[in-house]
Each structure stands twice: as structure tokens, then as C-alpha cells.
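I'll show a typical protein example:
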Amino acid sequence: DVYAIIAYMKTLPPIENNVPESKAKFPVNLIMRSMPQKSEFRNIPDKSNPKEYGKYLTDIAGCNDCHTQQVDGEFQMNKYLAGGQEFKLPGGIVLRSSNITPDLESGIGGWTKEMFVQKFRSYSKSNFTPPSVKQGEFNTIMPWTFFANMTDEDLGAIYDYLRTIVPIPNKVTKFENKN
């Protein structure tokens, strides 16, 4: 449908139109100032190199955004993917992201590739029924159902990449109800 719309629009005669410069109002103008001004594009690594392809997928999936702690908005790269980033929710609920480094004690170091892929598969539409979560009970903000749609090959490549990063011991208490 999109291609059909584009094809149709290309058949229309051009219209001369002087459009004034756009000026965003508060608070959008502040948000726009924080956006990157120049996109950084890179080629998709070849799938025959699962570690590089896995790093690429880990980056575009934004794993770092939740699984690496931040202090004053700055990622603490000495704790890259070691979890513990706090998400404060209403009602005094604090969620923390999991350690996904290959640390044996506190990360996913004891997981096999099959276990890793299956964790995501368990949230696919055919396998998952969302639980009823009451106020004050544990819930997750991990978008499991979104990532459950990835292929086994892609999830396996992410696992392969995660196995190459430095294991960081960081035992995380995932959920606290501070009420």
C-alpha cells in the first residue's frame, strides 16, 4: 500500500509553495534540542559472523539503555550490561534491570544458547498469556513479547555476542515494594 501511495503521489503535478520555517513550542522544543543532530549509519554485519552481528542487534535493540546503570544520565560503561538500572514506578515500586553479562553468579553465564532463546520464545503469542498483576506486585518492563518475534538465529547471535563481553559480578534485587 505504501508503494502504491508513493507511486500515485509521483504522478501529481508539483505545487510551488513557500512554507514558513517550523518552530516547535514548549516542551517539544526542549526535547528536540536533546535529539542527535546527525544520524550514525552503519552497515549490517554479515550473519556469518554471529558475534559482530549479535553486537549490532544488541545495539539496535537498545539493550544498553536498560541493562547498563546510569548516573546523572551517563551510562556507567564499567558496568556495561551488568543490570541494576532502576525504574521507579508509581506506588513506591522499584524495578531493576537484570545482569546480562556472562557472569556465572549474577548474570547469564550459566545459560546455554538454547536456554537464552527459549526464555524469549516463552513470551511468543502462541506460548504466553499475560498474567494479572495487582498493584504492588512484581511486573516487568522488559518488552519480552516484542523480542519474542526475533528469529532463533538473531537471538542466538545476541547470545553469542553477550558471551564475549566482560563478566561483571553484580547481584541485582530486581523488585522492591517500598510501601
